[in-house]
Amino acid sequence: MDLKEILSPDCTRSAVSESSKKKILELISHLVAPKLAGVSKADIFESLLQRERLGSTGIGLGIAIPHGRLENAGHPVATLITLDHPVDFDSIDNQPVDLVFALLVPKDNPEVHLKTLSAVAARLNDKDCCRSLRSATSDADLHAIMISEPNTCSSS
Protein backbone atom coordinates (compact mmCIF):
# COMPACT_ATOMS: atom_id res chain seq x y z
CA MET A 1 0.00 0.00 0.00
CA ASP A 2 1.25 3.46 -0.94
CA LEU A 3 1.93 5.60 2.14
CA LYS A 4 0.32 8.57 0.35
CA GLU A 5 -3.00 6.74 0.59
CA ILE A 6 -2.90 6.24 4.37
CA LEU A 7 -0.76 9.07 5.80
CA SER A 8 -2.29 12.51 5.47
CA PRO A 9 -0.59 15.80 6.40
CA ASP A 10 -3.03 16.36 9.27
CA CYS A 11 -1.95 13.06 10.86
CA THR A 12 1.70 14.07 10.86
CA ARG A 13 3.30 15.90 13.79
CA SER A 14 6.87 17.10 14.21
CA ALA A 15 8.63 17.78 17.53
CA VAL A 16 5.75 16.72 19.78
CA SER A 17 6.38 17.18 23.50
CA GLU A 18 4.50 14.20 24.98
CA SER A 19 6.17 12.59 27.98
CA SER A 20 4.86 9.00 28.04
CA LYS A 21 3.84 6.09 25.87
CA LYS A 22 0.24 6.48 27.07
CA LYS A 23 0.12 10.16 26.06
CA ILE A 24 1.52 9.29 22.63
CA LEU A 25 -1.14 6.61 22.12
CA GLU A 26 -3.81 9.13 23.19
CA LEU A 27 -2.46 11.64 20.64
CA ILE A 28 -2.57 8.99 17.92
CA SER A 29 -6.19 8.23 18.85
CA HIS A 30 -7.05 11.92 18.66
CA LEU A 31 -5.42 12.31 15.23
CA VAL A 32 -6.96 9.17 13.71
CA ALA A 33 -10.55 9.38 15.00
CA PRO A 34 -11.71 12.10 12.56
CA LYS A 35 -10.46 9.95 9.66
CA LEU A 36 -12.58 6.92 10.58
CA ALA A 37 -16.33 7.42 10.64
CA GLY A 38 -17.98 5.24 13.27
CA VAL A 39 -14.79 4.69 15.27
CA SER A 40 -14.26 6.54 18.54
CA LYS A 41 -11.04 7.82 20.09
CA ALA A 42 -11.65 5.33 22.90
CA ASP A 43 -11.89 2.42 20.43
CA ILE A 44 -8.63 3.45 18.78
CA PHE A 45 -6.85 3.93 22.10
CA GLU A 46 -8.06 0.54 23.38
CA SER A 47 -6.91 -1.19 20.18
CA LEU A 48 -3.44 0.33 20.54
CA LEU A 49 -3.28 -0.56 24.24
CA GLN A 50 -4.33 -4.15 23.57
CA ARG A 51 -1.53 -4.53 21.04
CA GLU A 52 1.01 -3.03 23.46
CA ARG A 53 -0.07 -5.55 26.12
CA LEU A 54 1.01 -8.33 23.77
CA GLY A 55 4.48 -6.80 23.60
CA SER A 56 5.97 -3.41 22.93
CA THR A 57 5.84 -2.05 19.41
CA GLY A 58 9.14 -0.29 20.10
CA ILE A 59 11.27 -1.99 17.45
CA GLY A 60 14.59 -0.47 18.49
CA LEU A 61 16.85 2.35 17.34
CA GLY A 62 14.43 4.94 18.72
CA ILE A 63 11.51 3.76 16.58
CA ALA A 64 8.05 2.52 17.54
CA ILE A 65 5.31 1.26 15.23
CA PRO A 66 2.14 1.03 17.32
CA HIS A 67 -0.67 -0.61 15.40
CA GLY A 68 -4.11 -2.04 15.82
CA ARG A 69 -7.12 -3.49 14.08
CA LEU A 70 -10.50 -1.82 14.35
CA GLU A 71 -13.88 -3.46 13.96
CA ASN A 72 -15.62 -0.52 12.23
CA ALA A 73 -12.73 0.96 10.25
CA GLY A 74 -13.43 1.18 6.54
CA HIS A 75 -9.84 1.80 5.49
CA PRO A 76 -6.31 1.99 6.93
CA VAL A 77 -5.05 5.22 8.49
CA ALA A 78 -1.55 6.10 9.66
CA THR A 79 0.11 8.77 11.79
CA LEU A 80 3.72 9.86 11.97
CA ILE A 81 5.09 11.66 15.00
CA THR A 82 8.55 12.81 15.98
CA LEU A 83 9.16 13.64 19.62
CA ASP A 84 11.22 16.56 20.85
CA HIS A 85 12.51 14.36 23.70
CA PRO A 86 12.72 10.55 23.52
CA VAL A 87 10.20 8.60 25.62
CA ASP A 88 10.45 5.17 27.22
CA PHE A 89 8.43 2.76 25.05
CA ASP A 90 9.63 -0.56 26.49
CA SER A 91 11.52 -1.10 23.24
CA ILE A 92 13.30 -4.35 22.50
CA ASP A 93 16.67 -2.60 22.77
CA ASN A 94 15.64 -0.68 25.93
CA GLN A 95 16.29 2.61 24.12
CA PRO A 96 13.78 5.48 24.29
CA VAL A 97 11.71 6.32 21.22
CA ASP A 98 11.61 9.59 19.28
CA LEU A 99 10.06 8.38 16.01
CA VAL A 100 6.53 6.90 16.05
CA PHE A 101 4.63 5.60 13.05
CA ALA A 102 1.17 4.27 13.95
CA LEU A 103 -1.10 2.20 11.76
CA LEU A 104 -4.80 1.44 12.29
CA VAL A 105 -6.48 -0.97 9.88
CA PRO A 106 -9.83 -2.69 9.39
CA LYS A 107 -10.05 -5.84 11.52
CA ASP A 108 -11.17 -7.94 8.55
CA ASN A 109 -8.12 -7.21 6.39
CA PRO A 110 -5.02 -8.70 8.05
CA GLU A 111 -3.15 -9.01 4.74
CA VAL A 112 -3.12 -5.23 4.16
CA HIS A 113 -2.12 -4.77 7.80
CA LEU A 114 0.92 -7.05 7.51
CA LYS A 115 2.03 -5.76 4.09
CA THR A 116 1.78 -2.14 5.22
CA LEU A 117 3.63 -2.84 8.48
CA SER A 118 6.36 -4.58 6.51
CA ALA A 119 6.71 -1.65 4.09
CA VAL A 120 6.85 0.87 6.94
CA ALA A 121 9.41 -1.19 8.85
CA ALA A 122 11.59 -1.40 5.73
CA ARG A 123 11.33 2.36 5.23
CA LEU A 124 12.24 3.04 8.87
CA ASN A 125 15.15 0.61 8.62
CA ASP A 126 16.80 3.09 6.24
CA LYS A 127 19.20 5.16 8.39
CA ASP A 128 19.19 8.07 5.93
CA CYS A 129 15.39 8.13 5.97
CA CYS A 130 15.29 8.14 9.78
CA ARG A 131 17.93 10.88 9.90
CA SER A 132 15.83 13.01 7.51
CA LEU A 133 12.65 12.36 9.49
CA ARG A 134 14.34 13.31 12.75
CA SER A 135 15.71 16.53 11.27
CA ALA A 136 12.35 17.67 9.82
CA THR A 137 11.45 21.08 11.18
CA SER A 138 7.74 21.12 10.35
CA ASP A 139 4.76 18.80 10.03
CA ALA A 140 4.74 19.41 6.26
CA ASP A 141 8.43 18.49 5.88
CA LEU A 142 7.95 15.37 7.97
CA HIS A 143 5.02 14.29 5.79
CA ALA A 144 6.87 15.02 2.54
CA ILE A 145 9.87 12.98 3.65
CA MET A 146 7.81 9.96 4.68
CA ILE A 147 5.74 9.81 1.50
CA SER A 148 8.68 10.45 -0.84
CA GLU A 149 9.69 7.67 -3.17
CA PRO A 150 11.76 4.89 -1.59
CA ASN A 151 15.49 5.60 -1.63
CA THR A 152 14.83 9.36 -1.90
CA CYS A 153 14.03 10.07 1.73
CA SER A 154 14.21 13.85 1.72
CA SER A 155 11.80 16.74 1.50
CA SER A 156 11.33 18.62 -1.74
UniProtKB/TrEMBL annotation:
CDD domains membership: PTS_IIA_fru (cd00211)
GO biological process, one term: phosphoenolpyruvate-dependent sugar phosphotransferase system
Pfam families for the chain: PTS_EIIA_2
The PTS EIIA type-2 domain, residue ranges: 5-149
Residue runs in coiled coils: none
Single GO MF annotation: protein kinase activator activity
PANTHER family: NITROGEN REGULATORY PROTEIN, PTS SYSTEM FRUCTOSE-LIKE EIIA COMPONENT-RELATED
Annotated protein name in UniProt: PTS IIA-like nitrogen-regulatory protein PtsN
Source organism per UniProt: Aliidiomarina sanyensis
Taxonomy of the source species: Bacteria, Pseudomonadati, Pseudomonadota, Gammaproteobacteria, Alteromonadales
